[in-house]
Amino acid sequence: MLKTALTAIFVFGLLVFIHELGHFSVAKMVGIKVHEFAIGMGPRLLRYKRGETDYSIRILPIGGYVKMEGEDEVSNDSRSFSKKTVGERIAVIFAGPFMNFILSILLFAIIFYNVMGTPTTRIQQVMENSPAAMAGIHENDKILSVNNVAIRDWDHLVEEINISQGETLEVELMRGNEKIQKMVKPEADESTDRFMIGIVPVTEKSVTLALRGSYEQTKMIFTEMLAFFGRLFRRQATSAEVVGPVGIISLVGQASRDGFYNVLYLAALISINLGIINLLPIPALDGSRILFLIFELFRGKPVDPDKEAFVHMVGLALLMLLMIIITYKDILTFFSS
């Protein structure tokens, strides 16, 4: 239980720190006065002041904030948030979710480099009686192109094979110093519902390849999560697919029992999720603040700060209510399992 709690604090702390660091760094970059950089909520546990900014850790390990001059109140200070251009203010707000996406790429890169390696387009093994074997493809061949489409990496190769839908492919290979062509007819794999030719790639430990693979992984998960939110808003997703803090802590506990890299993988998933949620145009979230700024850009003047603050306050109250409902559901699920 203690290990789960400490791991959950580590994961939540890392995600919040990186998110708020994005806001903080860009705010400082554009010259905004920052009063406080806080990790956690509630009473302070630790406090350190450097220059004009308080750096604090608070007792509740959920959330965090960067308190900027003139963000939620009227201020005539030339270094206030409200005195900066719309573009600068959007950059400050967008930087938080953006850093969550960057974090996920870095975490996946650590996993790819240390655990999985990065699959290349060079073939380590050709499965017996597979389409590749019947076409005369050999171990150590390197795949250069499929149907005259240059192959960038393993994921691109998998994509080109799958979109063939079983049609015969012209595959160009590098065998030694010679380029050769082979005709391969992919077969459907019923267990994955994908088309395959029966090859296993050589994996390499390369920082460049790990970063490229982690970027593709982040992009793929980002797309899938957007699709999920689309289903959720169309009421095509079930409530069982939505978890709150209790559900996440349960997942973190399971990941911690399975090993450190599983914790990193889960943290990367949650980080992408956090970035997407914060960009949704929901009052009190970063996406809503960006929406107000875009409205200001086209309108030529800002929305009344009191009215905007009221919208965010109502949105925050509704989000808290939603969180209570989801947490209640998580607790029921936890004790019934």
From TrEMBL:
User: Recorded E.C. number(s)?
Assistant: 3.4.24.-
Q: Which cofactor does it need?
A: Zn(2+)
Output one GO BP term. proteolysis
Q: What membrane topology does the annotation report for this chain?
A: Multi-pass membrane protein
Location in or out of the cell: Membrane
Q: List the molecular function annotations (GO) for this entry.
A: metal ion binding; metalloendopeptidase activity
Give the InterPro entries listed for this entry.
PDZ, PDZ_6, PDZ_sf, Pept_M50_Zn, Peptidase_M50
Give the domain of life.
Bacteria
**Keywords noted in UniProt:** Hydrolase, Membrane, Metal-binding, Metalloprotease, Protease, Transmembrane, Transmembrane helix, Zinc
| Transmembrane domains' residue ranges | 90-115, 263-282, 309-328
Question: Which is a Gene Ontology cellular component entry for this protein?
Answer: membrane
SUPFAM superfamilies from the UniProt entry: PDZ domain-like
Regarding protein family, the annotation reads:
Belongs to the peptidase M50B family.
Name of this chain's protein:
Zinc metalloprotease
Q: Which organism is it from?
A: Clostridium aceticum
